[in-house]
Amino acid sequence: MSELLPIASARRTAAALWTEVRALPVLGVLTAVTAVAASAAGLVAPWVLGDLVDHISVGADRGDVLTYAAIIGGAALLAGVLTGLSAVLISRLGETVLARLRERVLDRTLHLPAPTLDKVSSGDLLSRVGDDVSVVTTAIGQTGPTLAAALLTVVLTGGGMFALDWRLGLAGLAAAPFYVLAVRWYLPRSGPFYAKERVAIGDRAQAMVSALQAAPTVRAYRLEAEHTAAINDRSRTAMDLSIGVFRLFTRLVARMNRAEFVGLGAILAAGFLLVRGDLVTVGAVTAAALYFHRLFNPVGALIMEFDEVQAAGASLARLVGVADLEPPKRPEQVREPADGTLVLTGIAHRYEDPLVLDDVSATVPAGTRLAVVGASGAGKTTLAGIAAGLLEQERGTVVLGGVPVGELDRARHVAMLSQEVHVFSGPLIEDLRLAKPDATEEEVWAALAVVGADGWARALESGVDTVVGESAHALTAAQAQQVALARLVLADPTVAVLDEATAEAGSAGARDLERAALAATEGRTTVIVAHRLTQAVLADRILVLDQGKVVESGTHDELVAAGGRYAQLWRSWHVADLGVGR
Hints:
Subcellular location: Cell membrane
Radius of gyration: 34 Å
Helix content: 55-70%
Largest sheet: 6 strands, mixed
Strand content: 5-15%
Membrane topology: Multi-pass membrane protein
Organism: Actinophytocola glycyrrhizae
Number of helices: 23
GO molecular function: ATP binding
Protein name: ABC transporter ATP-binding protein
Number of strands: 12
């Protein structure tokens, strides 16, 4: 059963967010100052209107009214400009923080160990880097500025009410318990819905990915109805959760209206008593009532945006959960190997009990080839991953030229190719330059020639400038393997590890692909997980694994003559190979 990646706690999510904000001090301070100024400018109009009421009651003339109107208009214009600038800065700050978080998520995802990737639900992973990023991006661009402005407006407006008269401020606070009760009722009920909804969306994505990946099999066995039903079931689960939250939300709105009625009623009643006792002016009560009325939208926004905030919070927690995964270990000091000799000593590894590899040792002299053979499940791929430095062994050492692999610049010295290669969308030459960004066109053609791919590459409509990949010129599986081998030539690593990289050699182009692999690894230390035993024949030495242990080691001729496990594999493969159209 697939596992889910970790989800960060609310405290850890907030801490991660704050850490990213603190990393941008200038932008953070400028954003905060602008947002406060925008909210403060909005306090001017109610205060001036209240003062105008008092002046009119004592006989203010037309000139006074026009002066007050000009002040109110200027304050409104200033508030509008500052509010717009604040929204831009908040979005910029939020997008920058999210971009950094996305980079960390992508970095951790790309460096997930192979065993973890095998266990993790692909739907969960796709929903995090897709749906969750989209939800947080929307929240930052739309909800973030609204929420920040609303929060500051509530705080500053509340302070303005107390500045008018502390008793009017206390009257306005009568609404606070009702708001608090509304939120306390809503949050515990809605929060779990959002967390479950994000998981349900991941489950739905997993069902869709599984159906699409297995489309030929699904059609062959007429399982379309079953897979469609599974997707419908997961979609219905996500929909029911969304509807459940909306029902809670409509009941929250009724509770908010009750709080607004209580607060405004309390201010008017207190104002009436205070004016009658000649303790405050009518203008002060007017300003206080306008201030409280001004709170309707921002308080409503704070509460109503909790829908988006909680959805974004749930998505952000899932992103932080991935970002907090153990980062890939990088050597404190990169060392250069003395030569290309690869030595594996006492290698042991397990995913779960029992050991997948147990006390495996081998030496590959510089510039020679070691073929690793064995039945399925013998531990060949695990050994290849450890030799390439992609898996960390439980015990033992891997040393290249006297330097532990973990202390090397692995991108420069070690390259690994598997049978699952990817051709990126874009010009073929740029796909090849992934291995060497500064490669000239002549170097690219030379690499293609080494692996025997220059013929079909020149036949393309625009040569190496032809756009390949999805929605463009599709390469065959064998051609894609040749592209991967050409990248290997351009990268020119000290060690090449080929994990069944010529498995496609079971097709009509078998010999061509084997020759391409042989040419690409000429002169470099090579470890080959042999899919076809003809690859083992061409190796300088063969390591035979059985249930994670080395059972034989030697050249092809020595092992065949010994009549052991390898000789059995060779006879079985040779008979089968002769029977396949030869």
